Amino acid sequence: MQLRLPLLTAAVLASTACAQVRAPLYEPADGKVLFGAWVDTEDPSTNATNIGIGGDSPVKFNQRLGSNAAVFHFSQRLPLDISPYTQEEMTVPLKLVEDTATDAILFITVYPIAWTYTDKDVQKLAWQLGNITDPSLSNRRVMLRFAPEMNGNWFSYGQQPTRFVQEYKRIVDNIRSVTSRVSFVWAPNAADGYPFGVPLAAYELSALDTNKNGALDYGDDPFTPYWPGEDYVDWVGISLYWKGNPATGTPPHDNSASPADYWEQMVQGGPSGSNPAFPFYDMFALKYNKPLVMPEGGAAFALTQAPNNTPLPANVGQVKIQQTFWKSYLGVLSKYPKAKMFINFEYLKLNEDPVANANNGVTRDYRITWDSATVAALKADLSALGSTVQWASSPGSSSTPGNSVSTTSKSSACTSVFGVSLLATLAVLFV
Ligand SMILES: *[C@@H]1O[C@H](CO)[C@@H](O)[C@H](O)[C@H]1NC(C)=O
Ligand SMILES: *[C@@H]1O[C@H](CO)[C@@H](O)[C@H](O)[C@H]1NC(C)=O
Q: Which residues does the Swiss-Prot or TrEMBL record annotate as the active site (predicted)?
């Protein structure tokens, strides 16, 4: 008896959902995952953003890994930055992905600078993505992560959920009016340590104080105030990093390995700091049946510390640090079947996290394909997963799975949801 009502409700909800929500664009088949990187392609002679050492490329990444990554991540700003060197607008370097001669997905993060863009800037972004995805032009699959880590206090647009939702929808609506081939990623930061210390001046307490105790604190829901609704989201994402044991120093630099279940703790909550009352995977990936991406993430091997570039003890060492981190997700894929894409932050990051008024930043190596022992361990662990890992293919080769924007995938998902709902309805009628 208890079963009947939920089943009937589920059936009604499922058929409603069928009418409105399209299947997430570029989601691989169940049992498949996509692996890739955010490589540091900055030109070292013109280091305009200068957070790393530059000089890398998707082609070089594939060569080091010995496989064709399925996705490459780049970022640009809104409005676009102008290069001080060439005076050109700094858009993502599409050519570097085309150089791989594969069908890798171009994953683009767009950072809005304090919401200071105009309708014209938005239109330009929509056209840019329309051109990149146009089958008669570049014909490349694009995933767009707009205003990521919006629940953090480190970007000017952070912790302003009402404005975020309004702007996120504005971007999606504008792009959809130009092309249906962009997949939209909604991606807060992992909530370890939420609300991350001092709030921004512009933070929006009324919307963020979800437990209504008058303060923004660890007991508040770090995600839901920013949720734009399932119609606006193809993938959900969480950025997460391991930088060392925070208990051993600020900024962390002890070269310890993360807990073995670190990824799981970051997406579901756990003692490493993410509040288990807000299990992201359950709340968004499972609840709305959306694939989950780690849009950026990695473990840091700390090399030196400012101000004198003092070499730091290796402790457990680079292989152990990085392998523990990637195993924390590659080892639990069957437990988290909606987790389908992982993008390593492939950077050597210079002088990161200096504490205010103390020049003690740490140079951290997040790269997993440079050190020979580390990349050997990575290749072994990826190859042990066999055909679970879906690599990019070369255009013209027989299998380019999930490459099309498919009305077929939309309608088949719709049919299957409808089929399930029909079955559920029948089950209710005949129990
Ligand atoms: C690149 O960055 C370094 C370190 O911040 C700086 O000293 C150098 O002037 C920069 N090079 C250019 C061309 O801006
Ligand atoms: C490509 O960009 C131009 C503007 O540069 C725009 O007029 C055109 O509509 C875009 N094409 C698509 C398919 O979005």
A: 149 (proton donor), 296 (nucleophile)
